[in-house]
Specification:
Chain lengths: 289, 333
């Protein structure tokens, strides 16, 4: 285990931001922390990064209590990071490199994070995706054993997000351990080998995405447009409204389709799909984030 | 050392590339100097000024045009004015003779003396004093450089660090092995380089453009500036240790800087001010920076004379930097 967290707590007065969280992270995996806003995932991450102090609990790095060398061995990308005004991408890389004893070569970082074209631009003048790639490069500058990424793709367009995911997969191939918080369930599904879902400071589910879906869902979801709501209410089929659509959980899709036809509901726009992490998240937390 | 070097270089580049701030650093003191230069050199004045001790001078002499006669009750005051080049000659007449004083270092005195000799019938007795002229522009010049250093240090360190904190840059730095001492040292050194560079340009501009004479040692002046900048940076650091809002920092810096400016003899002397005002002034590092540099520039005072100022400013720096390091917080939490 590269990280072991036992009964971690962080209290702000009466507010229990993190309330007795325990989990273990294996080396070389991508570990996800999921949860609605205020669940305590960012606080947990910041305690693991060493930028916040825990109220109580134990954090072991490679089986030992963290010491001063910990900062030399980890890489961090915060949710939002400012750099000095007017600093170019290249200057940011060299400045941050100067803080560490062991470093990755700048040329290799530039190639890995695809920064060649923007090297001499000011960091404020690059796109969101390019900026996130710079911040990722800064988090990799000391060739860290663990990289902490706090909602790294928030605000990026779909293309930039996919490129960022490719980059994370490249970093995983280097054998790095990645600990990630995200709001995007597709991101967690695509990148994470293991994850925990937090709510109100506690862990409410833990496992690999496949395991979690296997445990929590036997059903498939039938999705209908909102225009069928009146007709559906007349039937005895139970459903949930999610983001303007009507969701029916079904263990027998054929039987449900027959029932829908009987109450004269159009099946032209029906969608049938397996449960995903988003469904699990909604089911467990009651939040549509 | 490498980390400090990179922090220093990054801060210098940021300063250079922030054109608005760069312009302000240079333009503000130049505007003030230019303003004073025109205000204090533009008035039409009489050709000569003669101080008269008691109203008992020759009528013939008084009728001469372009000479302003100023009455003085005290001979000592009149002679001191002559020594400082405020007047060109001092005159005192009794029953038997006319006594007059000249300043051997004042060129105008020579001509007034010729006029006097040709118009006075009584025997004359001549006395000499010596003293170089200190114009207001000369006097105020070190004050303006000091004031510029104060604004530069308070905002360039205090405000910038608060901005870094509010933006989250300090939080990011805190996630690296960089220590607060390395960071603050880098900031301090960068500000010293910037301040000394800007002051050197202003100082040379004053010397060669405005013709302000330098009476003392450049090395001593550099020591006063270095210790002064360090002490003013320390004031900036105290403000920046925990403040999380740029607006609040701006307000605090204004509250700190304006009284400092008025109590530190930037614009006017506090020689005649009451004791409590002088006590406050003596606590302020800017007072020591300005007094020290003024005495070197205008009077040519040596290291022994300015050493108490340097020691005070360095002591002030140590105390305030230690308090700052103790109170310093990286992030807003």
């Amino acid at each position: 285990m590269i990280l072991s967290i036992n009964n971690l707590k962080k209290y702000y007065g009466d507010l229990k931001a993190v309330d007795g969280v325990s989990f273990h992270v294996e080396e070389g995996i991508c570990f996800g922390l999921l949860g609605p806003n205020g669940a305590g995932k960012s606080t947990t991450l910041e305690i693991l990064e060493g930028v916040k102090e825990e109220t109580s609990g134990e954090i072991l790095f490679q089986g030992l209590v963290r010491d001063k060398s910990y900062k030399q061995r980890i890489g961090i990308q915060f949710q939002s990071t400012a750099l000095q005004d007017h600093m170019t991408i290249e200057e940011a890389l060299y400045t941050f490199q100067s803080f560490y004893e062991k470093t990755m070569s700048i040329d290799r970082l530039i190639e890995l994070c695809n920064l060649q074209e923007i090297l001499h631009k000011e960091h404020r003048r690059v796109s969101g995706g390019q900026r996130q790639r710079l911040l990722l490069a800064l988090s990799l500058i000391n060739d860290p054993e663990i990289i902490f990424l706090d909602e790294p793709t928030t605000g990026l367009d779909p293309y930039a997000r996919i490129r960022y995911w490719e980059l994370i997969n490249d970093i995983k191939k280097l054998g790095k351990t990645i600990i990630l918080t995200t709001h995007y369930m597709d991101e967690a599904h695509s990148l994470c080998d293991e994850l925990i879902i937090m709510d109100r400071g506690k862990i409410i589910a833990q496992g690999s995405p496949a395991e979690l879906l296997e445990i929590h869902f036997k059903e498939r979801t039938l999705i209908l447009p909102e225009s069928e709501k009146t007709a559906l209410e007349k039937s005895d089929i139970s459903f949930n409204e999610v983001k303007g659509k009507l969701h029916i959980l079904s263990t027998d899709v054929k039987a449900h389709l027959r029932q829908l036809m009987e109450v004269d509901i159009s099946l032209d726009d029906i969608e049938v799909r397996s449960q995903n992490l988003e469904d699990l998240f909604i089911q467990l937390t009651g939040s549509t984030f | 050392m490498k980390a400090i070097y990179y922090i220093l270089v990054a801060r210098l580049k940021e300063f250079y590339r922030d054109r608005a701030s760069l312009m302000w650093n240079f333009a503000f003191p130049i505007f003030i100097l230019a303003g004073f230069y025109f205000v204090f050199t533009g008035d039409p004045e009489p050709v000569y000024k003669v101080g008269v001790v008691k109203d008992s001078f020759q009528q013939e002499f008084k009728q001469l045009k372009n000479i302003k006669f100023i009455d003085y009750d005290s001979q000592a005051v009149a002679v001191e004015k002559l020594r400082r080049h405020k007047i060109d000659l001092v005159l005192f007449e009794d029953q038997q003779k006319v006594t007059y004083w000249v300043n051997t270092q004042a060129p105008k005195t020579y001509f007034v003396e010729l006029l006097l000799k040709s118009h006075v019938k009584k025997p004359v007795v001549k006395a000499e004093v010596a003293g170089k002229e200190i114009s207001y522009i000369q006097w105020v010049f070190p004050g303006i450089i000091g004031m510029n250093l104060m604004f530069s240090c308070l905002w360039g360190v205090g405000y910038v660090i608060v901005k870094y904190r509010q933006d989250g840059y300090l939080k990011r730095l805190n996630a690296t092995p960089l220590s607060s001492l390395q960071f603050l040292t880098g900031q301090l050194l960068a500000r010293i380089v910037i301040s000394i560079g800007v002051s050197a340009i202003l100082f040379l501009g004053g010397l060669y453009v405005l013709g302000i004479p330098m009476q003392g040692s450049y090395f001593n002046l550099m020591l006063v500036f270095l210790s002064g900048v360090a002490s003013l940076v320390a004031v900036g650091l105290i403000v920046a240790t925990r403040t999380t809002s740029k607006e609040f920092a701006d307000g605090i810096l204004n509250v700190v800087s304006w009284p400092m400016m008025f109590f530190s003899e930037v614009w006017f002397s506090l020689e005649d001010a009451s004791q409590w005002v002088q006590n406050i002034a003596s606590f302020i590092p800017l007072t020591h920076l300005i007094k020290g540099s003024r005495s070197i520039i205008t009077e040519g005072k040596g290291l022994a004379d300015v050493l108490p100022h340097i020691i005070y400013m360095l002591g002030f720096t140590v105390v305030f930097v230690l308090i700052s390091a103790f109170l310093f917080k990286w992030s807003e939490d």
